[in-house]
Design goal:
Blueprint: H1 17-29, E1 33-37, E2 40-43, E3 49-51, H2 61-86
Antiparallel strand pairs: 1-2, 2-3
């Protein structure tokens, strides 16, 4: 699949195709943000810099944390019900 107007052409044949593809996707996809460096993103409107993933603004950590908290909450509710049943 040929890549058109890719920013990773500046790397030439270095670093491998997967890394260059990730850089291309990172520097073209994120709406409202531009990749300044690995893990550093700048809001195009306000100029505010935020931390994120190296190639994606969202690292998926928020979703993982929500799932973990949901499981923990369910376990706590089950334990509370078991204690109330024993009394």
């Amino acid at each position: 699949m040929p890549r058109k107007n890719t920013s990773s052409k500046r790397f030439g044949s270095r670093y491998g195709s997967k890394i260059r593809r990730n850089v291309d996707e990172a520097e073209s996809k994120e709406e409202g943000f531009e990749r300044v460096a690995a893990g550093v993103w700048k809001d195009k409107e306000t100029g505010k810099k935020v931390a994120g993933g190296a190639y994606k603004l969202d690292t998926g950590a928020e979703e993982t944390m929500k799932k973990a908290l949901q499981v923990e909450t369910e376990e706590l509710e089950e334990a509370k019900e078991a204690i109330e049943d024993d009394e």
